[in-house]
Design goal:
4-stranded mixed beta sheet; binds zinc ion
């Protein structure tokens, strides 16, 4: 009798498995990861005030890839990196190589940088910040070259890993992000609850047909600036990914920075806080994973456009020669750089290209991949105006060429409104009208079927 009961329960169990296992998966997903920790001491990205190279590694840095393929065989790739940022040329170089080996076109890859300020300088981003000697520059260049090879292998490996999967989406909340513009210049800077902020934590779960979790793609809109220490680490996004992966053995956690151009973690300044914010973000992700999540269906539709954003009229030679005596060493460097451009017969840029990319998951989710360092108003506005569906607005995608202010921030001025453009090698600010131009491009792309 016992044996019979055992046999029946075994059969029932097998039937249940077959039933779940045979349900047709909506997607195929492939996952891969790669250690991208610099091998030795290297100049670190982000803070202009840094005066020497890195001193050891507190936490290794990773790049992770997630490939998704819908039922029609349409593919896209997410490449999430624990880095300050990469530029357009860098992503193009990788895209050219992976198109040949995987068939995934460049515009179907979303490169996202976590914007940790405790990682290496990557060639091409904020060139005016760093005044590296020949040897330091050689280390930075060699790192970027090796990184390109690593990312190509990463994407190729993830494609080989493609297997049936189901996707689901939900949103949690973490509250350590604070609008830094509203705190600047204050004696006792505290978050201003009335200043724009978005505490949403978008979460995409990748599960196999038996419901077992394989990967988690999650985001948060906040600078990776908890500390400016000299030990390499992924800042709060790095710690959040480790916390999620520690809680789920074998699962890959991928972080996507949001529109945190004007958002800083609060409080900040100590490494213990980096861990604390990472834990808070991981807990928000955990809460979503353990609750009901909405299934994501296809078809997958990717649309991409490179628009031109007009810059203020460039300065003339005389003005640049004056700027050589500016009290800011960065303005001096920019003037030197631009005078060299003029001498070489190259006119100064009067506009700046900006890649806008939209990935639609049927009618269930629109992901708007914004380039540069977009301020939070972009996420708030797009989430409001594209209502009726889930909207996820990552920033720091594909090319980090400048801060992206909205009309309000441009008018207010300050660091994100135009002052920071010098670090990107640009004479600024942007001309008014950029916000609407970007929003129009997003809507045009999101309307494509
Ligand atoms: Zn930044």
């Amino acid at each position: 009798m016992n044996q019979l009961r055992h046999g029946v329960s075994l059969l029932l169990g097998l039937m249940a498995w077959v039933q779940v296992g045979s349900a047709e998966a909506q997607w195929r997903a492939g996952i891969a990861r790669q250690d991208i920790t610099p091998a030795g001491s290297i100049w670190m990205g982000g803070y202009a005030s840094r005066d020497h190279s890195s001193e050891g590694v507190l936490q290794p840095l990773s790049a992770k890839a997630l490939i998704l393929e819908d039922q029609q065989g349409s593919r896209m790739a997410f490449v999430c990196m624990d880095l300050i940022g990469v530029d357009f040329r860098f992503c193009e170089a990788i895209g050219r190589r992976t198109l040949a080996s995987t068939g995934i076109a460049r515009e179907r890859i979303v490169f996202n940088s976590s914007h940790t300020h405790c990682g290496p300088v990557v060639a091409g981003v904020t060139p005016i910040v760093y005044d590296l000697d020949r040897q330091q520059q050689a280390v930075v260049d060699a790192y970027a070259e090796k990184l390109k090879d690593q990312l190509v292998i990463l994407i190729e490996t993830a494609v080989k890993d493609l297997r049936p999967a189901d996707l689901s989406y939900g949103e949690g909340k973490a509250t350590f992000g604070a609008n830094r513009r509203a705190m600047r210049g204050k004696k006792d800077p505290r978050p201003d609850p009335t200043a724009p902020c978005d505490h949403g934590v978008p979460v995409m779960a990748v599960r196999d047909c038996r419901g077992e979790l394989h990967a988690v793609l999650f985001g948060y809109a906040c600078h990776g600036t908890t500390t400016g220490i000299y030990q390499i680490n992924g800042d709060y996004p790095g710690y959040a990914q480790v916390a999620i992966e520690t809680g789920h053995r074998g699962v890959t956690a991928l972080f996507m920075a949001g529109c945190g151009g004007d958002i800083n973690p609060y409080p900040r300044g100590e490494i213990a806080l980096t861990g604390q914010h990472g834990q808070a973000l991981a807990a928000a992700v955990e809460a979503v994973l353990s609750g009901p999540m909405r299934p994501l269906r296809g078809p997958l539709h990717i649309a991409c456009e490179r628009i031109e954003l007009k810059l203020a009229d460039p300065p003339g030679r005389e003005e640049l020669e004056q700027a050589l005596k500016d009290k800011s060493v960065y303005r001096q460097r920019l003037a030197r750089h631009l005078l060299a451009e003029l001498s070489a017969g190259r006119p100064l840029a009067s506009s700046c290209p900006c890649t806008v990319q939209v990935a639609r998951f049927g009618e269930d989710l629109a992901m708007i991949a914004m380039p540069g360092e977009p301020v939070i108003d972009y996420a708030l506005r797009l989430r409001r105006e594209l209502s009726g569906q889930s909207v996820w607005v990552p920033g720091y995608c594909n090319e980090i060429f400048a801060y992206l202010p909205t009309e309000r921030v441009l008018k207010e001025g300050g660091y994100e409104g135009g002052e920071a453009m010098v670090y990107f090698g640009l004479c600024g600010p942007f001309q008014p009208g950029l916000e609407q131009k970007i929003i129009d491009a997003v809507k045009r792309l999101a309307a494509q079927r």
